[in-house]
Amino acid sequence: MPSGPYSPQRAIDDIPGISYALHLFLASHMVESEDYCKKYDPNMERLYFATGYGLIQFVKGMMSFEDEDLLSAINHVRHGNIIASQHRKRTASLPTRLVGLVVGSLNTSGVGFIKSMTAVERHAELVYAESLFEKSLLGIVYSGDWLAFIKDALNLRTTINIYRQLGKYLEIVDAEAQARGKGPEDSSIDAHFRSGVYLGVDGLDWRIWKEPVGGRRNRRNQRLGLRKRAFTFEGVDIMMAQKILNYHKKRYPNGVFFLFGQGRLHLCQSQPALAIECYQRAMQVQNQYRNMYNISHWEMAVANLALWDISASLECWRNLASDATWSKATYTYGIAVCLLELGGDKNCEEAGSLMEKVPNLRQRIAGKSIPLEKFVARKARKFKHQGGRLVLPALEFAYLFLGITHMPRSIIVTKVLPLIDEVLLKLKAHENDPSMYEDGTSYWDDLCLANFLKGNCLRYIAYPDPDAVIDNLEKIDIPSDAEESALAAFESVFTDGTKISLDHYLVYYAHYEYARLLACKGDRESARKHLELVLSGKPLEISAAARKGKYSMENALHVRAHAALEALDQNRSL
């Protein structure tokens, strides 16, 4: 604990104290961490404690999305931002700044200005940018209107510009140190400042704000910068991620954040059962931040879909709908599709009641709808339009969250493919007269969806995800024609997609998945053509005049397609 009054000139001396608060937080002693901050700095006048306490409240607010938590976070982050501003180097008078536009040595916004700062002022500049970013995000989430979004977007731009100048400063002083033979880095720059700049520059790379959604560029340097803040060598992969998690799990055996990370890693390795164990333990090790339970419930809902344990997934969606406020529309739809999958009159009746609510539960952030919520609202309206019926809704929902990607092959073969084949058999009975199928208008949508899902399932049987851990002891009959059948399933979507009436997104996503399958086969040029077709903006299913607006999850697909093209360029697995 500090002795004597606070001196802004000695603000950096508080770093060990705030590091201890961070240690408590990462060890799942969140309340103790908050109490320590308040005891160390009762007046919240210290640079690192005022902003550090604000960061804790920011995490709480973003986890819960409750108005009360968001307002508290906004107030504390704003206070921290003010404290940081008070520690910054004072800018020159207006005449001096005007002269600085001509005389470089008097410029108050460039690297020279940063060089003229003391170490504390540079730290304050960094922390000011961090807290301004937090304040902007909270404002966008809390207000939800365009006017506030414009204001906070300008703050984000200020944040990015500060980080950019700090990044240039590091580049220049490191180059100067190297020229003096004392490189590769300037040893006078402390590690805390350097790591903070790397995180900001590369986590909020200013160039992304100049790109359209899904824009491509070389992100290698950006990723390198993000890695620099943690370690000093290249070659990050799943195995390296596991090593890092193992290191931190030894330091924080009850650290909820590292349990989240381990759970996510298991899911990426197609081990959903192990992922669920991690999320269950994450709920057991701490009960101070109840909102963190919702992270576990969300991840377990998806992991249980990957195990095709519909009852367990249903329970998680119910918990989310009861306690969480992130996306009530999505949670409610998740409950409904699980009930439909389980079947039974009572379940279907409840599902119908929930589907009625879904469109009215949508939220807006910065005046814009959330794409996933738009998707589930469309599906809910389709459910009503079709007289209370959807085909394979839980499996389609699982696909959106990469549930099929991370589904063990034994689950696909024994549980999922039989369901799809049953639907296709029913559809085949009406292939000569589609108008006699169900309501008379949904035959082609259902056929394309079933084939799309079948193609995805067979693709992961033929070519498991590159990060999947394959259980060599599993005893299943792998279809020998999985690759050919997957190709045929996607091609049938291309053929029949012209007759789709509502689910237009299927054709575009089918081209994307088809491209990835071709890349797995080794036909990378054909894969590139299909990915470029997705990004071309051309209507792939019907004439341009027949579809209104965007298809579902369009921006998300563009991001995926750009990433896939980049992987092709770098000869990486898809």
Could you please describe the fold and organization of this structure?
By secondary structure, this protein is an all-alpha fold. The protein folds into 3 domains: 199 residues; 164 residues, Serine Threonine Protein Phosphatase 5, Tetratricopeptide repeat, CATH 1.25.40.10; 167 residues, Serine Threonine Protein Phosphatase 5, Tetratricopeptide repeat. The protein has 25 helices and 2 strands. The protein has a two-stranded antiparallel sheet. Strand 1 and strand 2 form a beta hairpin. Helix 2 runs antiparallel to helix 3, helix 7 packs antiparallel against helix 8 and helix 12 runs antiparallel to helix 13.
Task: Give keywords.
Serine Threonine Protein Phosphatase 5, Tetratricopeptide repeat, mainly alpha, TPR-like_helical_dom_sf, Tetratricopeptide repeat protein 39B, 574 residues, 25 helices, IML2/TPR_39
Compile the SSE list and pairings.
Layout: H1 15-26, H2 30-40, H3 47-64, H4 67-87, H5 94-100, H6 111-115, H7 119-143, H8 146-179, H9 191-203, H10 220-228, H11 238-251, H12 256-268, H13 272-285, H14 292-306, H15 310-323, H16 328-342, H17 345-357, E1 364-365, E2 368-369, H18 371-385, H19 393-400, H20 409-428, H21 443-462, H22 482-496, H23 505-521, H24 524-535, H25 554-569
Antiparallel strand pairs: 1-2
